[in-house]
Amino acid sequence: MSAENSTQPTVDETSAAQSHAFQAETRQVLHLMIHSLYSNKEIFLRELISNASDALDRLRFAGLQDASLLEAADELHIRIAADQEAGTLTISDNGIGMNHQDVMENIGTIAKSGTRQFLDQLSQDDKNHSQLIGQFGVGFYSAFIVADEVTVLTRKAGEPAGQGVRWSSDGGGEFTIQAEERQQQGTTIILRLKEAEKEFLQTWTLRSLINRYSDHIGFPIQLLQDQDKEDDDSKPEWEQVNKAQALWSLPKNEISDEDYQAFYKSLSHDLNDPLTWAHNKVEGAQSYTTLLYLPKNAPLDLMLQRDERQGVRLYANRVFIMDAAQQLLPHYLRFVRGVVDSQDLPLNVSRELLQENELVGKIRAAVIRRSLDMIARISRDEAETYTEFWKQFGAVLKEGVVEDMANRDRILPLLRFASTHDETAGSQTDLAGYLARMKPGQDAIFYITAEHHTAARNSPHVEVFRRKGIEVLLMSDRVDEWMMSYLHEFEGKSFKSVTKGDIDLGAIGSAEESGEETGATENAVELDADLLARISESLKDHVSAVKSSNRLTDSASCLVLSEDEMALHMQKMLRQAGQQVPESKPTLELNPQHAMVARLADEADDERFAMLAQLLFEQALLSEGGSLPDPAGFVRRINSLMTAAPAEPA
Ligand code: ADP
Ligand code: MG
Question: For the whole model, what pTM was predicted?
């Protein structure tokens, strides 16, 4: 029998083999595994070993509550055996195992929320597939990259031998499942290798793969030695091929960079080396070890909800307790990977208890500090590396300015911004650099937020600053506007948006600059009050007031917000996301020296006056990256201007 999308057996589950159709998404994952993952085939071994290791971790953890579970197993291990004649590769563990329901839930369906995204990504780019597998929790299916049939024999620890399960599939649309007597607990996975993948039966291939990918799995990985064919009675000989040590518990001087890197890869399912790491042992009233890594590349789902399993693993005296990224790391450090091992944590600690545990609170504070120190170290010593780091994770780290008041002073020096000081592409400054370049009399750190870097750089609001040589930070990350609404000062200097409130640059630089540059006098040009009133009346639906501007040098007009208003590009973004944004009208500022404004002053015809005023408003809105309320009307107005005023013959 076969039932689409069914996970429940429809006949007595202890009877003969039942067939089930894979859930549609699983089928898609399988299809992609089989047809598009040829570049890093060998990662199937890493994934299956990683699952076996997880199963052993979970048994050891369960054994803390119920010691009989551990007694039933010999020494915990992972075994790998190649059978040349049968063409099979077998990976077994004596870990937690699965019962019928576990198997149905874990390896027939993919319940994880990220699967859809995984599939989309797989079909989009073709480079990092093998990395995605581990990150999205579909590692088991990678067996089908090399096998045309996969059989799982398993029994859950603590359940009777009669409760064993046999699961089997050729990776097509279906799998079969049936009850099967099984003496030992744990899981055995048998891969019938495809004809072209027989190299994975070679002992030396297997050994080198284990060394490369799984050396730092904390349980022995044993490889079956080639047997003498003549001697049928010989006992199987197992050779341990990994170190099976908790890397972090070794003295630092016994750990090579390669060890650290390999451990990172097995921890994170990342194929790249980490950017850097920090390994610390704290001895004292509380003793714990932290080994923390910064990845090179952001995982795909970095900007989304964090996957609990990607992050920091918590151990108590080398016994894996749980993935505890949320307990040990704040959201803004969600890219940090690593291990925390405490000597004082109660072993029976639950996720809920963890939240309230005082020691965990202390460890968390230490993990945050170590992570920020690690980041600060690169920012200080390795400028180029830091640039790479900032590109990948800067926008996430900025969330910390809002999220972590207690560490704000540590976070602010890590921030980098584009700036008018140096506009070569990619050039960035930190806040200390900005302070050092401030002009005499300048008491604020000027910045602008915009949707894109170009919009920030070319904004009319920046014109007067650029001309006077006053630096403006150019911000265009999505989080910037939000961050800046919480960030009011740095080392006693307040932040000021150049798009909000009044700008008075009169006092800045007056001591040393020439009269032309001093600002206070040049803006004496004010527009006629009647003209302003007339424009204001004409635009009353769009703006709250119309003023002469001292911000503009080249542009005719710009829109100015009050200090507590949200930048226009943010308002637009939130509205597009379906959120309520309070209606507010900006102030329109006009450049008294601009030809277009002069032209308006001379316009007697009311209809043409209204059209020109409207255009000044629309220009200002466009240069903010805003969208016009009436784009077709805008085009009509422009066209009517262009046709009404033919160029004078030269
Ligand atoms: P992930 O390991 O990220 O959860 P996988 O696709 O690798 O995703 O495995 C799916 C699930 O199948 C595991 O979460 C686990 O519940 C179960 N599983 C796989 N291999 C084993 C094993 N050797 N022992 C026990 N359970 C296993
Ligand atoms: Mg896995």
Answer: 0.80
